[in-house]
Each structure stands twice: as C-alpha cells, then as structure tokens.
Design brief:
Number of strands of chain B: 0
Strand content of chain B: under 5%
CATH class of the domain at 77-281 in chain A: Mainly Alpha
Oligomer: heterodimer
Largest sheet of chain B: none
Number of strands of chain A: 0
Order of helices and strands of chain A: HHHHHHHHHHHHHHHH
Number of domains of chain B: 1
CATH superfamily of the domain at 77-281 in chain A: MetI-like
Radius of gyration of chain A: 26 Å
Helix content of chain B: over 70%
Order of helices and strands of chain B: HHHHHHHHHHHH
CATH architecture of the domain at 77-281 in chain A: Orthogonal Bundle
Number of helices of chain A: 16
Largest sheet of chain A: none
Distance between the termini of chain B: 34 Å
Structural class of chain A: mainly alpha
Radius of gyration of chain B: 22 Å
Chain lengths: 319, 271
C-alpha cells in the first residue's frame, strides 16, 4: 500500500512540475536512442558492406603486380561463353516460374475464397509446406520424378520450373493472400457474373486489375528466388546462374565474383522496387477494406506492412 | 483442381518418396538397415556439426538481428533506412548462397581484400582452413544470412510494440529499464524464440553456402545427402541419403511446430 502511494506521489510530483523535467527526460532518451542507433548502424553497416566492397575490389584487380584497375571482368559478364547460357536460362526460368505460379495460384485462391472456403486451411498448409521441407530433401525426392521427365519430355534445363514453382509457393501465397484480402472478391465477381461475364473474364479483367500490386510483388519475388536458386539445379546437374558462378570460381575468380556482386545488386534493386510497389498497395488497399469488413484483421495486417509482408517469410531451405 | 494435382506431383510425391524409400534397400526389400547406417561415426558427426552450427549461427543471428530490428523499427516507417534494410535483408536472407561464399573469398580468402591488407601490415596470413571449418568460419558466413533473416522475421513483432505502452509505463513512473523488463521483453519473448527457431531451421537446411565453401569431406548433413545423391557408384547408398533426409524433415518439422505454437502465443498481444 505504501509502495503504491509512493509511486503515485512520484508521478504526481513529476506531472505536477509540468513540462520541463519530463520533456528533459524524453529529450535525453531520444538522444541516447539516436546515439545507440548510430553506433549499431555503423558497426553492422561495416560488417555487411565490407565483403561487398571487397568483392568490387577483387573483381577490378588487374592481372599481375601493380597492374591498373580494370572493369574487364565486369564486361565479360555479358560476353562470356560459359556464363551467358546460364544467365539466359535463369532469366527464362524466372519468367516461366512467375507466370506458371501466378496462373496456378490466382484462380485457385479466388476459387477457394468464393466456393470452398473450408479448403482454405488445406491450401494454406500445402502452400507453406515447402518452408518445412528443405530444398536438399525435396531434390532427393524429385530425383526419380526428373528422371521420368527426362525420358518423356526431354531434359531441358527449363524443366526446372516444375520444382521452382513449388519453391516460390509460400511467397506467392502470402503475397496474393494479402492482395485478395484487401479487395471484396465476392461482390466484385458476383457483380461481373450478373452482368454476364464468363469466369476467365472475371479473373483477368475484374479480379487481377484490382490486385495489380500484389501480382507484381509475387512476380518480382519469384524472379529474385529463381535467380538465386542453387541447390536443386546443382543436384539435378543443370547449370543455372548460381551453378555457373560456382563452376567458374575455380578458373576465373574475378568473373565469378563480379557476377556474384552483379546478381546481388540486381536482386537488391528488384526488392527495392517491390517495396515501392508495396506502398501503392497500402494507398489503394485502404479504401475497400472498411467496406469488405468480413475479416477486418487480415486486410489490416497486410495493408499496414506491405513493405515487409512479401519478403517476410524466410525461405528456409534456400540458402 | 490443377493446383492439387501440381502440388501432389511436385511437393507431396517427392516428400513421400523420401519417407517411403528410406525403408527400402537397393533391391526393393523392406528394411531398417538405412537407419542403422545413420549410426556411422561420419553421419553422427555431421548431424552434430549441423546442429551445433545452426544453434551458434542462430544465436549470433537472433541477437545481432534483434538489435538491428530495434534500430529499424524505431526509425521512420516509410523512411529510406527501412526500405534499404528490408530490401537488403531480403536479398541476403533468400538470395545468398553461392554469392555469399564468394563474398567471403573476396574478403578473407587466400587472395582476399582483408587478407592482403593484413599480410601487408603484419605479415601474417589469416586465410587458413578456419574459414571452412563448420564451427568457426561457417558461423561467420552463416551470420550473413541469419542476421537479415532475423530482421525480416522479427520486424513485424517489433512494429507491434505500441508507443502507448511505453507512455503508459512512463506515466506510471517506470524507467527505461522497467519498461523493457516488465513490458517489452515479456511481450517480445515468444516472437523472439519463434524467430530463433526459424533461424535454426534455416541454418540447418542451408546447403549452397556450405557446398561452395567446403571442398573436402562432408562435415554437414546437407553435404552428406548431396554426396549420396550424386555418387550412384556406391549401390544402395542413395537410400541411406533418404534416411538422412527423413531425419532432417523430422528435426525441421519439430522446430517448425514449436515455432507455430510460439507464434500463436506471440500474436496474443502483438498484432
């Protein structure tokens, strides 16, 4: 009891004396916070930027002692005979994977939302499952399936997209789920249907245009993930970008390191674009959400933090 | 439904194949022999190294990543810092792999930038075998994707801390210490532990970085599995790989289940 009174008095005195001490306290706290943030950012910034700087330094070294700096390795990224097919294959895989993943997932998720909501937990579980099965494990099981595919439709590197669609499922699911929660799918599709449009028209001309940002996010994430994929390609003995980087490492370290840095920067820019696309989701996402109302918490979550939402789920098995 | 067919063929079927064939020998007879093989010294050691490496890198990642998350969360929500850090984290946590390994070779490899600086200054060569040892160098390399992963996973929880709670603590006379001890830490603990488990699973499953850096021996489980997968010369070893893969699934599944439970606990206050 005395303790309580004591605390209360302390508070009373402080608020009683009004502004100055309290403002002083907050100002001091803010100064300390700023100092702390500065220190952390400088230390961790150095920790992360140092290897990147070192990569640039390494890749611009001239041949021999005292040779001048050269961008020669960087120029060879686009001209090298071994690297080129791998870069092209990875880019093609990125495009195919995003398209297939979206074509597979958008209708499925809309369908589940409208017709069979009781399946939504199953679909969610299946989509998030790849996070629990490490890529190295998945590839062991994919081995026989790919041997069968080789026999039937040929062993092109582009068949890797079958596996990559599975890898990107969790990310595509989360992103599209956020996008779908922000619009009122039911009203939109019923309105379109009653005006006589077919299901494909509803999908392509009503639903998708209303969630462009989410679709774009999902596609960009697919590209980033596919461009960085190594495990599955390597074990199934296909040479994609990452496998090529590793193989070149023995013979031509400068080129390998230049390509590594270039691909890191490429992925960074993709995700930075994505964070701006996410901001647009928030603006457009705000209007319809009060109207839909059915699940108030879900759209709020997605709309509040679109920047981190798409990249939020870690790809457990990737690295 | 095309979705179910697709997921069935390319996700469920491979996973079940792994689980199923782990119980058969090369000739197709039912057996537990593949699991007996797991008791070999090299395999036991690889499991232990993998677990210790994942634990150590998860500890480093969650602590440093937690601090970085706090710094990001206290900044402007639309600011450049936050955008840059989340985008960079996305790249390093998800894209990393081989490129990270090369980043390290360029820095502290035999011809690395720092290696050369130190040789010039002190005459000692720091690029020894330590970089390739699972329990020293690899922890350092792994922390380059574990710290960013922590930022991605932990940021929503940090954002969930409302400034009103701090104000409430202050208006009741609480100091910064009181606030952290009695409000913020208890609220963040489940989310933090969940993130820690996720980092553990990520380190445990990681293959690319180790594959690119470790050239001799197979000190980690993923490397062991890859070895049995690619060397079909030794008959029947492929199914030992499946037994190891099943072991990995079990460990990751346990970790992810705990994580899901903690997430549920965490979402009670932080939403």
């Amino acid at each position: 009891m005395t303790a309580t009174t004591g605390t209360l008095t302390a508070v009373d005195t402080r608020t009683g004396v009004a502004g100055p001490p309290r403002r002083g306290l907050q100002a001091r706290r803010r100064r300390r916070l700023q100092a702390f943030r500065g220190v952390v950012l400088v230390v961790l910034g150095l920790f992360f930027l140092l290897p990147l700087g070192a990569m640039f330094e390494f890749s611009t070294r001239g041949v021999g002692e005292g040779a001048p700096r050269t961008m020669e390795a960087w120029k060879r990224i686009v001209t090298d005979q071994e690297l080129n097919p791998a870069i092209i294959a990875s880019l093609e895989l990125a495009v195919i994977t995003s398209v297939v993943a979206l074509v597979l997932m958008v209708p499925t998720m809309v369908w589940v939302r409208l017709r069979v909501p009781r399946l939504s937990r199953v679909v969610e579980f299946l989509c998030l499952l790849p996070l629990t099965v490490p890529a190295i494990v998945l590839v062991v099981g994919l081995g026989p399936i790919y041997r069968w595919l080789d026999g039937h439709i040929g062993g092109s590197i582009l068949t890797l997209f079958f596996a990559y669609v599975v890898l990107v499922l969790p990310f595509v699911y989360r992103t599209l789920d956020t996008g779908l929660s922000a619009i009122d799918v039911r009203t939109l599709s019923e309105a379109a249907r009653s005006l006589g449009s077919s299901w494909p028209t509803v999908m392509l001309r009503v639903i998708v245009p209303n969630m462009v940002a989410a679709v774009l996010n999902a596609a960009l994430l697919c590209v980033a993930i596919v461009m960085g994929e190594f495990t599955i390609a390597n074990l199934l003995q296909y040479v994609n970008l990452q496998v090529a980087i590793l193989q070149l490492g023995q013979a031509d370290a400068s080129l390998s390191i230049a390509t590594s840095l270039a691909s890191l920067i490429f992925a960074f820019l993709l995700l930075l674009i994505l964070s701006f696309a996410g901001r647009r989701t928030r603006r457009t996402g705000k209007d319809p959400s009060p109207a839909s109302g059915s699940t108030p918490s879900a759209p709020a979550d997605g709309a509040q933090d679109p920047v981190s939402a798409p990249v939020l789920t870690p790809i457990v098995e990737e690295i | 439904m095309p979705f179910l067919a697709y997921v069935g063929i390319f996700l469920l079927l491979p996973t079940l194949l792994v689980a199923y064939e782990a119980f058969f020998d090369a000739a197709g007879n039912f057996t537990f022999a593949n699991f007996d093989e797991l008791r070999q010294d090299t395999i036991v050691h690889s499991f232990i190294s993998s677990i210790v490496l994942s634990l150590e890198s998860a500890v480093v990642g969650s602590l440093l990543g937690g601090v970085l998350t706090y710094v990001v969360a206290t900044g402007s929500p639309d600011g450049l810092l936050r955008r840059t850090v989340t985008a960079a984290s996305g790249v390093l946590a998800q894209f990393g792999g081989v490129t990270l390994a090369f980043a390290f070779l360029a820095t502290i490899g035999p011809q690395g930038f720092i290696t050369k600086l130190i040789i010039d200054a002190y005459g000692t060569d720091i690029s020894g075998g330590w970089l390739y040892e699972p329990l020293s160098g690899l922890v350092l390399v792994y922390s380059y994707f574990q710290i960013p992963l922590m930022v991605l996973v932990f940021l929503p929880a940090m954002d969930g801390l409302r400034p009103q709670w701090r104000e409430a603590a202050e208006s009741l006379g609480g100091t910064t210490w009181h606030y952290w001890r009695h409000v913020a830490l208890p609220l963040l603990t489940p989310a933090f532990l969940g993130a820690f488990l996720l980092l553990f699973a990520s380190g445990f499953s990681a293959y690319a970085t180790a594959a690119a850096l470790v050239s001799q021996g197979q000190p980690l489980v993923p490397l062991q599995i890859a070895n049995t997968f690619s060397s079909e010369v030794i008959l029947g070893r492929e199914n030992v790989g499946k037994a190891m893969a099943l072991g990995m699934i079990v460990i990751v599944a346990i970790v992810m289940t705990l994580n899901a439970l903690l997430q549920r606990r965490a979402s009670r206050w932080l939403r």
